[in-house]
Structure formats: C-alpha cells, structure tokens
Amino acid sequence: MLHLDPRFSPAVTESVGAIERRSDAEIVVVVVGRSGSYRDLAWAAALGCSLVALGLLAWAPWEFAGVLFPVYAAIAAAIAGFTVARSAPLTRLLAGKRRMQAQVREAAEAVFVQETVHGTRRRTGVLVFVSSLEARVEVLPDQGILGRVPGAALADLDLRAGSLDELVGGLRRLGDLLATHVPPVEGDNPNEVDDAPRVRA
To answer: Are residues 178 and 85 in the same domain?
Structure first.
C-alpha cells in the first residue's frame, strides 16, 4: 500500500505546503485502503468455483463418494472466496475499471463532506482522494475552485497512485494549475487546514 511507505507522509505534506504557498487553495489529501468492499466478487467466485468443482466431480472418470461432494464443493468455494478477497490484482480484474471508478468517486464524495473540505473561508478547498487498492486518485474541488479553473484542465491532470513518485508528480501538476488560476491573495493566505495526509484504514 502506498501510505505504508515511510516517505509518504513527509513527501505529501511538503507537496501540499508548496501548493498552498503558490495558490489560494487548501489541499486535503485523504488515503484509504480501498473504496469498496467488493465482497460480492468473493462470493461470486466462491459460488462459481463450487459449481465447477461439483461438475468436475460428477463428470470425472474416477469414482468419488457422493456424500463427499458437498465437502469438496465447500472447500473449493472457501479457497476461491478467500483468494479473491485477499488478492488486490484479482479484485481489480474482476471489478473492472468502470466499477472501480464509480466506487472511488462515491467514496470521495462522502469524504469531501466528512473532512469539511467545503469549510474554508473562500470555498477554495480541494480534496485529493487516494484509493490504494484501485490505484486511483479522485480530485474534488469546492465551488471557489470550480468557478475559476477550467473543468477540462482538472480532468486532464490524470493523477495516479501507482507509486509515491507518481502521486507527488501529480500533486506538482495540480499545484501548477492552481497557481495559474487561483493565485494567493496577497497578505491574506493563511493555512486553514493541516497539510499532513489523513490515512484511513
């Protein structure tokens, strides 16, 4: 997970501070392990593998005691369900890009409210929501940013969380964009929100 890197918190805190010195924005970075539980995928894998196991047992050229069929099916289901639940690559493969994008967006919108990103004086808060399992970054700006930064420019940032270097590079590009469109107000640029990232299990 990205946030387990010991360099993560200092690097992100420094990047956020640099953005806020060059702009009127207040950046809130929140990192979560995953945006969705995806339990349904584990259950689906368990059911599918149990059915496959029953089919193989029924059509195998060898004889098996019929009373053991449910046991074998249950073992296959448990192994498949546990494997999918514990494997990030398998979860990503089964979930698909569209579902992961929707899950991250929904989780980010909830965190935007929970972290009161909208609570800055000039409504210039920006949530940078990092979801590790999905390796996605969602940027949600408040109204004071939306009215001044072109939506297409925000969309083109394409922040990624595959590595710390990718994330820091994305924050740097975000800082350049905000410095251009939302420059700091001279003599009135307080740090309203702590720069350190919030890490949620």
So the answer is: no
- What was the pLDDT predicted at 71? 86
Q: Are residues 138 and 164 in the same domain?
A: yes
| Closest by CA position to 130, among listed 122, 119, 121, 138 | 138
Which residue range forms the structural domain that includes residue 63?
Answer: 39-91
Same domain, 67 and 103: no
129 sits in which H/E element: strand 125-131
- What CA–CA distance (Å, rounded) separates 167 from 8? 10
SS3 for 185-198, per residue?
A: CCCCCCCCCCCCCE
Is 129 in the same domain as 189?
A: yes
Q: What is the CATH number of the domain that holds 102?
A: 3.10.310.50
Number of domains the chain contains = 2
How many degrees, rounded to 5, is the angle at CA 12 between CA 24 and CA 173? 55
With 0-12 / 13-18 / 19 or more C-beta atoms within 10 angstroms meaning exposed / middle / buried, residue 81 is buried
Strand order in the sheet with 136-141: 136-141, 125-131, 26-32, 198-200
Block residue for tokens 């569209």 = 98
pTM of the full structure? 0.85
Indicate whether 123 and 192 sit together in one domain: yes
Tens-place pLDDT, residues 146-171: 989 988 888 888 888 888 899 999 99
